[in-house]
Amino acid sequence: xxxxxxxxxxxxxxxxxxxxxxxxxxxxxxxxxxxxxxxxxxxxxxxxxxxxxxxxxxxxxxxxxxxxxxxxxxxxxxxxxxxxxxxxxxxxxxxxxxxxxxxxxxxxxxxxxxxxxxxxxxxxxxxxxxxxxxxxxxxxxxxxxxxxxxxxxxxxxxxxxxxx
Length: 164
Prior knowledge:
The structure is a single chain. The protein has helices spanning 2-15, 142-163, and strands spanning 24-25, 29-30, 32-33, 37-46, 49-58, 64-73, 78-87, 90-91, 93-96, 100-110, 114-124, 127-136. The strands form two sheets. Strands 1, 2, 5, 7, 8 and 11 form a six-stranded mixed sheet that branches. It has 164 residues and is α+β, with helices and mostly antiparallel strands. Residues 1-21 form the signal peptide. Keywords: Signal. It comes from Pseudoduganella lutea.
């Protein structure tokens, strides 16, 4: 009977990767579009162990700034500590507190496809985290267009005057 218990434990540890939680790779998430803003929510859950999660986002737009966060709130049965987080290779700010773990970033220049990689460790029962990413591009003010049109008008006037 003892041999069966040992064999069962070995099979279970192999099947569940020992103390390694499942890594998660998201399909590409297309950010929802606004006038000059795009946004998406992300997150996942883990059982006990270390993990590496990769989220890929895409948006159709020019160079813009990304802002976002991810958070895990600790409860009696589960918790997550973040080890590292990067957005397109740029290290993000982390906080692992007594009640929550947090990732924050703001005004990171981005363009096209974004890759967010989060590593950490899950404790207890199923632990999860969730977050939001927002991408905002600069939209010229109406006065900018007015100045552009005025400048083109002056250039046209000068070109016409030179011909005459």
